[in-house]
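Hi Y.,

Following your request, here is the sequence exactly as I used it, all 479 residues.
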Amino acid sequence: MDAAVDAVTSVNDIYWYGVIILIVGFGLYFTVHSRFVQIRLIPDMLRSITERAETLPDGTKGISSFRAFSISAGSRVGTGNIVGVSVAISVGGPGAVFWMWVMAIIGAATAFVESTLAQLYKVRDRDGFRGGPAYYMQHGLGRRWMGMIFAVVITLTYGFVFNAVQSNSIVDAASTSIGSEGLGWEALIGVLVAVLTAAVIFGGVRRISGVTEVVVPLVAGAYIVLALVVVALNISEVPRMFELIVGNAFGFREAVSGGFAAAFIQGIRRGLFSNEAGMGSAPNAGATAAVSHPVKQGLVQSLGVYFDTLLVCSMTAFIILLSDPDYGTKAGASLTQNALAAQLGGWTVHFLAIAIFFLAFTSVIGNYYYGEANIEFLTESRRVLQFFRALVVVCVFAGAMGSLPLVWEMADLFMGVMATVNLLALMPLGGVAFALFAHYSRQKAQGIDPIFHRSDLPEVRGVQVWEDSDTHGRAVEVG
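Below is the corresponding structure, written out as tokens. Let me know if you'd prefer a different format.
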């Protein structure tokens, strides 16, 4: 097992330098080209997320921006916010938190572009709409082969590898909570999570969005409240904490071996795993929304990056750093649990185990949906989809008994490949997203609630919906 971990780690240590250059480079380009859309349009983000869903051509109500946001939040807000942050801090030191923040602000511009494109190039399906990078690669670039590569990679990454990470983290948190471990205990938890996963994923996207819409805000809200209590109890230490974060981020105060490099690499990796900006995952959820303009959902998905990293991840970091943790070992959920217990008492160990269970579970079903949307891109066969669902359930069970270091290193590797393919597609399609943004901005300047029809930008080819219709702002199927 150690040999496998070392082999994957060696690949990641080299490959991720290239991934980071792509992620940061594209994020900065989109930020400058849009004149900091992810900061200037925060009020529009808040308005867009509260809008009601448009009515579909068959008369049914579509999936709202908030429900689509909940699917992506269900995938984003999970172990990456609790376990991932603890791994980043224990390996990269406090400075990793700073680079996670930077990654979120830069990445929000990339999230805006990819989700706007996903909305533009979405297609109709039985539940409303579906879409994502595979769809804009086919319809926007005319490269179905590229979309097929992405579809395979994201299906493997989210359906199998990331879901193994989620169930593995549930076991880690539960073991710390009850003080028990072993294959029998891990198998029991694996069966429980697998059964619950099967009950939801065989119900389709509406059941998935219905579960995440309730669970994510409730559990994340309770977790944030506890974190704010910890901050309030240690308010005098907060300035020192921020000084530690910034100092370690630039190597002025070295908390772990590697200094600046360790903080930077871990911050970028864990930040991307948590907020997924540029990976091409959240656009699959964003495409399901029935909105009046593609840019609206692009803005909502940018807000999701902030919610995930600047809010939830920061809360975890504050809990850990205000408890003077030890650095240098790849700790999992137990680091956060022990830090919270030191501040508020032993009962919080059990609370956090429950919180991780629910957040990881919603991540599992959110991750599953990303795979489903791309399986349907590859084939319309219901038999293949059912087989994929069964494999997801098996991987959830298997992940509960896996090695923590191995599943995280595998997650990093697959995540890097997925981000690379997606970013290469965004390079030629970025201009389309900015043309949509200009169209949106012109209507806003006139005091109009932005509405888009494909005839508004006739030079853009491959759009499958957004036809002119007699229903105000409705996107309908073409052909």
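Residues 87 and 330 are 5 Å apart (CA to CA).

Thanks again,
Q.
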